[in-house]
Amino acid sequence: MKILYGIQGTGNGHISRSRILAKELRDCGLSVDYLLSGRAKDEFFDMEIFGEFQHKQGFTFISENGRINYLKTALNNNIFRFIRDIFALNLSDYDLIITDFEPVTAWAAKLKGIPALGIGHQYAFGENTPTSRDTWLTRSIMKYFAPAKHNIGLHWHPYNISVLPPIVDMELTRSTNKKHILVYLPFENQKDIALVLKNFPDTQFIQYSSDLITAQTGNVVFKKTSLVEFKQDLKHADGVICNVGFELISECLHIGLPILTKALNGQMEQYSNALALKQLNYADVIEVLSRDNIAHWLDHKTSANIPPWPNVAKAIAELIASNNWQTLKHGALNNETLNLWPKGVKNSQPL
Q: Which residues lie below 8 Å from residue 71, measured CB to CB, with a gap of 6+?
C-alpha cells in the first residue's frame, strides 16, 4: 500500500501528532510520502521523520495579539493557487490519502476518487461534541476545509463512535524535579505576556514562541520553539499556561500537568475545546491573561485525575496496515472496534 499523508502546518499540533503516527506507519512497513501546507517551508523545524516532503501553500489563518485577523487571512490566501495545486497534485501512485485537516490532499482525493482518511481533532466535531460560538461559517469550515469520506476524530472524551483518544508521545513522562511553569501562547503578543509574568518574581517561567530568541529577563526565560528542548522543559514543568489547542493540552493531561488555558479569540475550535475542558473539569479556563487569573491558578492549581492515554497511533497504524479499515463499522476506525478509551475516562460523564 502506498500512502500520501497531508498535514496542516498552521500551528504545531497537527505536525506533533503526525510525527508520532509517521513513526508507527514506518514501523508497520508502510510506504508513506508527506505533503505539508499552511506556512512557508522555511518556517518548519525538526521535520526529519517526514523525509523529502512536498510543500504547498494551502490555507492558513493569520492571528495578531491573540485574535484571528479575518481580513489578513482572506488577503494572505490565494484561492487560484490553491485550486491549481489541487488539480496539479499527482495521486496516480497512491492507494490511500491520509489528511490531518490538510486541504490540498483532501480535495485532490475527493475530486480524483482516491480513498481518503481524515485523522485529527477537527474530525471529532459531531452532534454530541461540545461546541461554543459556532456559526454557519465555522461549521462550513469544519465540514468543507479538508473533507474525507472516512475519518477518525481525536478528543478527550468518546463523544461519538468514531472518536478516539488523543495521539501523544508514549515516551513523554513527568519528572519529579519540577522547576518552572511552561508558557506557550504563540498567537499572543509575547511582550505583553512577559510583562504579566514579571509580576511573580518568585516563580520561574519558560516562555516559548517562534518569534523569540533565547534570553532571560528576571524570572522569565525566553526560548525559540524547538521540539527536543520543549519536550524536556515540559517534562520538568510544574504547570502549563497555553492556548486551548488540542495537542499540547492532550500531552499535559497524559502526564498529569496542571493547565491554565485561554482560547484564541475568534477561533471556534478553541472556544469549543475550552467548553469541553470545563465540562470535564480537566483544566482552568480563563478569558484574559491577567495577573489576578495567574495568581489564583498558581495558588490553587491541580491536575486532572485521569489515566494516561493509550498508544492510539500504533493501533491506527496497525489497522491501516491490515488493509481492512474501510470495512469497519461506519467506515471508520472507531472506539468500539479498538476499545482504546481508559475506563476512568470512558465511564465518566461530563459535568
A: none
